[in-house]
Amino acid sequence: MMGEWSVYDALASALTYPDSGFETRLDQCLIGLDAADKSTRERVELWATCMRDLSREKREEAYARTFDMSPKCTLEIGWHLFGETYDRGTFLVWMREHLQGCTYEEATEL
User: Fold this and answer.
1) What is the pLDDT of residue 1?
2) Fewer CB near the last or first residue (10 Å), C or N of the chain?
3) How far apart are CA 22 and CA 33, in angstroms?
4) How do residues 13-71 score in pLDDT, each as one tens digit?
5) Which helix (H) or strand (E) holds 13?
6) Mind giving me the DSSP string for 49-107?
């Protein structure tokens, strides 16, 4: 069984850009959700099934349409908090500084 943070990591990895490792990340996500409540796992499993039925190109289009082209659904917390303001940049710098003091490794996107 995965720990709580592993479940979050699995969910986060399933919501990254649908590249060649996407289906593997979906599998890991569903395994991680075995520790979650049944309703949550069932809903994510339904979404995963729909995503598997799409071609890679259609997955990429769905991702861009959902997360890149819709400010309401962006995966960037700074955007939700500050929108397109200078405060968002300040927040990102603050986050980077705080991540350096944690054991959480920074990825390609903050």
Assistant:
1) 46
2) N
3) 16
4) 888 889 999 999 899 888 888 877 788 889 999 999 999 999 999 999 999 998 887 77
5) helix 4-14
6) HHHHTS-HHHHHHHHIIIIIS-GGG-S-HHHHHH-SSHHHHHHHHHHHHHHHTSSSPP-
